[in-house]
Amino acid sequence: LFRSLEYARRQNLLYYHRHPTRVKESIKRSRAKRPEYYREQKRRNQIRRRDRIKQLVLNYYSNGILKCMCCGETECDFLTLDHINGGGQHRVAIFGDRWSAGARFYSWLVMNHFPFGFQLLCMNCNFSKGKHGQCAHMTSGKSSLTTLAAELGNPTDGGSQPALFMQESLV
Length: 171
Fold this sequence. Notes:
Elements: H1 2-18, H2 20-33, H3 35-61, E1 79-83, H4 88-95, H5 101-111, E2 118-122, H6 123-132, H7 136-140, H8 144-152, H9 163-166
Antiparallel strand pairs: 1-2
């Protein structure tokens, strides 16, 4: 079966090279008959390609261990790249509008052989760093949950227990 499949692929490739206009016209006719199908197929392929490139970039900048460099978050949907020395607005000048820079930016990183100056952070740490110049985890030296617990008071001191500690088992 494998040999016949390889043989068919070679024959199709030879036919395409001998008759490129016929093949292109045939493709155009079949796409005109089922535009919704091919539109959906194109969308799926673009999503798959974008996810593959993002995974490649995140793996490179995290040395294969997908986690936030600050807090240790491991959920891939929450992870993003951060400019180590700031300068994310400079990227907008390169790519035009800021909303389309995600996938295009990841492709640019791959084409430019993964330049230095980026690290993997979760969105919370990245936003905190952008707003304050440094992540809240780094500023206090404690995790955010420990800081919040200290602000609310110790639940074992005999006082009233905040709702955070009462529902701890649900978290």
